[in-house]
């Protein structure tokens, strides 16, 4: 790549020339005085705003010729240029004429510019140069751009080419032909705001590459207002955060630091979560530490995380700390999907929390956040049912949860527990005490099926004993656990077939489970020491084992045992 020429020795003799954006650090807000300068951005108010103020700054330093594809664009950009109107000349070069110049070559363009009155000390700004290059072969682009560069190097004023709606073709062209476009910058706009990406540019300390600067409107969000840098500096293709003006600021809810007699003096401790949005309304790169609260507060917490993420730059750090209970796996992943940078577990002490917050200071949130909060949260939530379900409904509910969460990679487990010969279905179902939505149970001829929502295979042996009031070994002889999507579907297919052939419905004898309905705070790895797990039936990879031999007698005529009652 060609080195960017350092013009510091000549700067004193040349008038300062702004880039149309205020507050850019280290001299990056000054336009170079020589060479071809490529500026690109998406169509819309932001890019038009930039070009308008770019022309304003340019005309204050040089008499300028503007080249536009149509008159309306000139009218919009020159509407506020009355003070410098005598320093501007305009030339309409339609898109069709620009495309024709791809064939006739740069010599024809140079001749037309001279005929239009372009002087040697007059700046040239092409307001949309995309038609000059799009659709052309690499050879033509190489030749045209090289001749343009040679011509610009001999001039006493800058040459600026603006590219509206830079698709991959235009952006790739500007990136590849660095020998011709010595300076290249892109205005970027996404859901998290505006930024100026300097692919190659000059600064007060020399050439810079792959640097992204956060932007905001100078006052409000009116298109007439100038943009200015907000202090965020990122570098590299992965946009590694370098600096934000408030990166050391930490805002924490009172409940998030309740275990500390005296939180760090520099922290901003906010009484409740409801006051957080107002407290951090101007935050750019600060860290917000929220308490997870209780299970009934989860929806309010998730909505707050989503709101903060959608109204602040990606450089804002949002951290949720478990306080009153353990978040379920699906709740934790939902928070991360909605905009949280991290979830801190209860087991992590305060000194480790400080270390984790320090590690987050140089990070930016890079995941795409869904605009619709309700739809995004719904994908992580189980069905509102829990406890015993008749076999057909069990299969339908379980399949629905598997289908809904497959795309987000949430792990579940389906367990088949084979009953001991002296244990009855009624006894096992009555002993089952679920406390979380989506944890379901049903029965076939000789087994109990348990579906655990958002419970991975590694947590089954810890979670399962907590769900039964009796030790598992007193009810079941063995268990088959399946956590793969395909394996669970195969188990469900077998259960569905058995249900269609006829299975009893134990709804009438199932114990009520409304007391714990809707809880989200329980997490399998928090359980205390439990009895040893049941023997597991080995399974070949990606398949479900054959079911154990079943009794030929109908379950309804199974002899009752003395302790079944």
Automatic annotation (TrEMBL):
Residues 517-565 are annotated as: Disordered. It comes from Comamonas terrae. InterPro entries: BcsE. This is BcsE family c-di-GMP-binding protein.
């Amino acid at each position: 790549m060609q080195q960017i020429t350092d013009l510091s020795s000549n700067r004193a003799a040349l008038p300062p020339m702004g880039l149309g954006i205020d507050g850019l650090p280290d001299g990056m807000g000054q336009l170079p005085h020589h060479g071809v300068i490529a500026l690109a951005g998406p169509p819309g108010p932001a890019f038009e705003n930039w070009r308008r103020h770019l022309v304003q700054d340019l005309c204050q330093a040089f008499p300028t010729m503007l080249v536009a594809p149509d008159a309306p664009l000139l009218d919009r950009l020159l509407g506020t240029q009355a003070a410098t109107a005598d320093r501007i000349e305009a030339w309409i070069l339609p898109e069709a004429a620009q495309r024709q110049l791809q064939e006739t070559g740069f010599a024809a363009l140079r001749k037309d510019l001279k005929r239009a009155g372009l002087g040697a000390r007059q700046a040239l700004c092409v307001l949309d140069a995309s038609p000059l290059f799009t659709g052309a072969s690499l050879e033509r682009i190489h030749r045209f751009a090289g001749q343009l560069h040679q011509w610009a190097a001999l001039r006493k004023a800058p040459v600026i080419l603006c590219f509206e709606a830079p698709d991959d073709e235009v952006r790739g062209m500007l990136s590849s032909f660095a020998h011709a476009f010595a300076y290249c910058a892109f205005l970027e706009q996404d859901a998290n705001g505006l930024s100026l990406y300097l692919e190659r540019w000059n600064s007060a300390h020399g050439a810079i590459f792959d640097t992204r600067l956060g932007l905001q409107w100078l006052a409000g969000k009116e298109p007439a207002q100038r943009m200015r840098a907000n202090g965020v500096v990122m570098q590299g293709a992965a946009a590694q955060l370098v600096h934000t003006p408030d990166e050391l600021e930490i805002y924490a809810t009172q409940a998030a630091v309740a275990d500390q007699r005296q939180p760090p003096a520099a922290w901003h401790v906010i009484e409740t979560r409801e006051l957080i949005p107002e407290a951090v309304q101007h935050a750019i790169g600060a860290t917000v530490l929220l308490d997870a609260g209780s299970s009934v507060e989860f929806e309010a917490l998730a909505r707050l995380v989503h709101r903060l993420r959608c109204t602040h730059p990606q450089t804002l750090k949002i951290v949720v700390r478990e306080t009153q209970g353990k978040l379920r796996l699906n709740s934790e992943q939902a928070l991360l999907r909605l905009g949280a940078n991290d979830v801190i577990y209860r087991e992590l002490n305060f000194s480790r929390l400080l270390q984790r917050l320090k590690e987050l200071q140089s990070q930016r949130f890079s995941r795409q956040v869904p605009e619709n909060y309700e739809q995004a949260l719904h994908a992580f939530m189980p069905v509102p049912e829990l406890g015993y379900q008749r076999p057909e409904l069990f299969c339908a509910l379980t399949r629905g949860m598997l289908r809904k969460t497959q795309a987000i990679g949430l792990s579940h487990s389906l367990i088949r527990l084979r009953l001991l010969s002296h244990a009855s279905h009624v006894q096992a179902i009555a002993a089952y005490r679920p406390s979380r939505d989506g944890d379901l149970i049903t029965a076939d001829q000789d087994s109990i099926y348990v579906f655990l929502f958002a419970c991975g295979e590694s947590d089954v042996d810890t979670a399962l004993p907590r769900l039964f009031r009796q030790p598992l070994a007193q009810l079941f002889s063995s268990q088959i656990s399946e956590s793969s999507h395909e394996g669970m579907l195969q188990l469900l297919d077998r259960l569905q077939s058995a249900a269609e052939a006829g299975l009893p419905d134990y709804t009438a004898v199932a114990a009520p489970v409304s007391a714990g309905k809707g809880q989200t705070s329980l997490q399998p790895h928090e359980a205390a020491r439990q009895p040893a797990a049941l023997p597991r039936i080995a399974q070949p990879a990606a398949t479900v084992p054959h079911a154990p031999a079943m009794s030929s007698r109908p379950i309804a005529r199974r002899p009752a045992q003395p302790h079944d009652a």
